[in-house]
Amino acid sequence: MKSKLPDVGTTIFSVMSAMASECDAINLSQGFPDFTPNEYLLDRLSHHAHNGKNQYAPMNGIPELRHAIATLTQECYGRAIDPDTEVTLASGATEALFVAIQAVVNPCDEVILLDPAYDSYAPAVTLAGGICKHISLMPPSYQPDWQQIAAAVSPKTRLIIVNSPHNPTATVFSDNDWQALANLAEQHNLLVISDEVYEHIVFDQARISAHRYPALYDRTFIVSSFGKTFHATGWKLGYCIAPPALSAEFRKIHQFVTFTSFTPAQYAVTDMLNEYSDEVHGLGGFYRSKRDCFINAMQASRFNMLPSAGTYFALADYSAISDKNDVDFCEELTRQHGVAAIPLSVFYKTPPNSRIIRFCFAKREQTLLDAAAKLCAL
């Protein structure tokens, strides 16, 4: 049988987490917390599961949650959205990204990706018959060169996918970046997917989103994730906000992918947003303390820690430790030193000549200190 994705193997996240488990290593590779969500959220999940909320929810999500999302968006970005025509719940942000891509990419359409890019983007474009045009963000700043990006646009370019706060580099778009993106999209009549799953985990500036730029919003799918926000990645509950015309196209695909998403979780998250919205607004501070704990503990190491402006990741340059490529170094780190990390090269079509890996600090403080002690021993 001819594969539709002949170059795609097992995702690096699965590979490194399996290796960490096999070697009993501290897993700072895959981006998930090792602590439990808010007890209120768990109690509400149990409550709704035990009180009849176990059947199909509406295809676009329960009205209560869509209204809560609209309220949160207004609070964060000052944008009023219609919860009925502009908000769609999805089974995780990855499903929402896949659906948005399938909704607008036609065979031979070009899609601009900024590498290092989350590894679900390119396969989804390929499955839609699109052509990926990769633009590399270069270390150590990983800042987009908007002139280079503009030069990559052709008459066939349909879509650009951006991600801020950015996984895996932990960088955050500035206002100038958002303005440049808005100008580029408007000038060339491009659609945009803005992957904002880490939108509330920003450390050194106010939260900025495509929501804040009206002309940009009019042509953008904005994807976010409650898994990241409420430390419950296994619930796979995300959502997409888009103008009515784009949302209508999104829902045409969504209904045939998952149709609807985990019903008790929708009700539990609604309660959480209504009762504990301060936890959302305090997420940046919560993870800033974890970032600082890890970075400070790593000061005695031979790793050069790069700035982390957002997400719950930190990059580290290991050039002073090893000449190995990052994939081999991460395997050595896991098997011989008991800490799992993610190599950055796997997120590039054409990796730069650098030795940089990604650590996840969405962990308990003791986990971070134990990992840092092992890393400082190298």
From TrEMBL:
Cofactor (UniProt): pyridoxal 5'-phosphate
UniProt cross-references to InterPro entries, sorted A to Z: Aminotransferase_I/II_large, Kynurenine-oxoglutarate_AT, PyrdxlP-dep_Trfase, PyrdxlP-dep_Trfase_major, PyrdxlP-dep_Trfase_small
One Gene Ontology cellular component annotation held by this UniProt entry: cytoplasm
Classification via Gene3D superfamilies: Aspartate Aminotransferase, domain 1 (3.90.1150.10), Type I PLP-dependent aspartate aminotransferase-like (Major domain) (3.40.640.10)
A molecular function (GO) term: kynurenine-oxoglutarate transaminase activity
Enzyme Commission number(s): 2.6.1.-
Pfam annotation, one family: Aminotran_1_2
This protein's record includes keyword Transferase: yes
Record-annotated Aminotransferase class I/classII large domain positions: 25-373
Family: Belongs to the class-I pyridoxal-phosphate-dependent aminotransferase family.
Protein name: Methionine aminotransferase
Organism field: Zhongshania antarctica
